[in-house]
Amino acid sequence: MYGAEVEKILKGKGISIGDNVKVKWRNSAFEGQLMPRPDVGDENVIVLKMKNGYNTGFKTLEIELIEKQKTTEKPSKTETKSNLPQISIIATGGTISSKVDYKTGGVHMLMNAEEIISTAPQLKNFVSIKKILNPFTIGSEDISFREWTKLAEITAKQANESEGVVILHGTDTMHYTSSALSFMLTNLSKPVVLVGAQRSQDRPSRDGVMNLTCASIFSTSNHAGVSIVMHGTSNDDYCIAIPGTKARKMHTSRRDAFRPINAKPRAFIFPDGRVEFKDEVKKRSSEEVKADTSYNPKVGLIKVHPGSNPEIIDFFISKNYKGLIIEGTGLGHVPTQTLKKEDSWIDWIKKASKEMIVGITSQCIYGRTNPNVYSNLRLLNKTGAIHCEDMLSETALIKLSFLLGHDYERKEIEKKMLENTAGEINKRITISEFLN
Q1: Is the pLDDT of residue 41 over 60?
Q2: Among this protein's residues, is 68 annotated catalytic?
Q3: Do 340 and 356 belong together in one domain?
Q4: Domain for residue 431, yes or no?
Q5: Are 92 and 44 in a shared domain?
Q6: pLDDT (0 to 100) of residue 97
């Protein structure tokens, strides 16, 4: 609520939150949509959302004139073309799944085709939305295997009923979810595309509309697999499709934050409908998609650093964890021949390997681990730990959890950890896969 004096002025002019208004301030005229008062700030400052997308505050004591403007905008038509490919959309939360409601000042989930198309009208030129589902609404930082299980089951069903599936998701852990679905969706014969937004819809630099458009286009293309589709550059020229097990969020706020790691982009997708494949892909088919959602959540991920205390491993042993991914340095090093013997991780990893499966990944963004180059690595290799090739730490965590959820013998799990089952391992990395 604005202050009592402001509310009196607005009521006298017949102005409500969400109305288009014109104010005259310091000999200049401004038009915009009246927004609710922010939770913080001066109660006597009204806030308008200008046509350029930015919010501007005006002190009411300095306003010479305020009046309500007639709305001339016509409601957008949402009719779609006939014979368009049908896709399913699953909304799970995140910036891209919501719309600002200036009547209340809050946000609400986009839960029907009319609303989805109203935010991205160009969708009606490319796809028909068969169904929209909202199995849960959650910040991506709060997601877990429980949600991944439910999401995999719903996605498998929708993949069998539609040309493709688009999943609206928060960006922070979207690459974890894409990895989980890559392992859980067996016989995947359709495109499953995760998409998010780095900027909210009420900002001029919003990216969700283009991301959603490109994701929808890619979900109907001739390929099968789990991908993340986001901006390819900081401009609005094209989006990139990234393999689900080879994606990482590389920047906190840039629109092109997601990049392929140790892999090429699957494709460039343009908002006019063009798709340019940049790497070989599995072609779509009519094979039935199934969800294999068995997993064991008792897998940990820890990062070594200079001076790090290996006793942290004892926590995972004491809590009866079944797997542990250790993110080493460089080629997969851990503190080994330290000046103080108790600072070495070797004996601790050897102990852990008797109780659980231990995997080694690298803190380096690109490249692969190698247990044979240096003497310290060879000592580590004798502990029973597995060097996980070029797998991302996040992907290794998900894969080990997935394998431990099945009735495999230990040796079989260790073998499968080094087998490429969902595009997670490249036996050879080329120079073209660096800094894509």
Answers
A1: yes
A2: no
A3: yes
A4: no
A5: no
A6: 78
Show the beta-strand stretches assigned E in 51-190.
55-59, 63-68, 86-91, 98-101, 106-109, 128-133, 164-168, 185-186
DSSP 326-341: EEEBTTTB---S-SSG
Share of the chain above pLDDT 90, in %: 71
- Are 117 and 209 found together in one domain? yes
| Catalytic-residue membership of 399 | no
Cα separation, 273 vs 219, in Å, equals 11
**How many C-beta atoms surround the C-beta of residue 303 within 10 A?**
13
Say how far apart CA 128 and CA 131 lie, in whole Å.
Answer: 9
Catalytic residue check, 172: yes
Inside any domain, residue 147: yes
171 is catalytic: yes
DSSP 294-312: -----EEEEE--TT--TTH
Quote the pLDDT of residue 5.
85
Q: Is residue 404 part of a domain?
A: yes
- Which residue is catalytic, options 24, 42, 150, 172? 172
CB 248 within 8 A of CB 398: no
Containing H/E element for 256?
A: none
Measuring CA to CA, which residue among 123, 309, 304 is closest to residue 220? 123
What does the pLDDT average to over 100-112?
Answer: 62
Residue of 191, 202, 219, 195 lying closest to 140 (CA atoms): 195
**Residues across the chain:** 436
State the pLDDT confidence band at 78, using cuts at 50, 70 and 90: very low
Question: What is the secondary structure of 72-88 as a DSSP string?
Answer: -PPPPP-PPPTTPPEEE
Domain that holds residue 45: 4-68
Instruction: Please state the domain count of the chain.
Output: 3
pLDDT at 191: 98
From the list 92, 155, 171, 369, the catalytic residue is 171
Give, in order, the Cα–Cα distances in Å from 145 to each of 178, 254, 298, 299, 394.
Answer: 12, 28, 11, 11, 13
Locus of tokens 């697999």: 225
Q: Catalytic residue among 49, 190, 246, 249, which? A: 249
Query: Chain-wide mean pLDDT for the chain?
Result: 91
- Segment 265-269 shows an average pLDDT of 98
Number of CB atoms found within 10 A of residue 89's CB: 29
Q: Rounded to two decimals, what is the model's pTM?
A: 0.86
pLDDT of residue 111: 64
Q: Is the dihedral of CA 312, 356, 176, 245 positive or negative?
A: positive
First to last CA, the chain: 48
Task: Identify the active-site residue in 95, 173, 220, 245.
Answer: 95
The two tokens of residue 179 are 């990895």
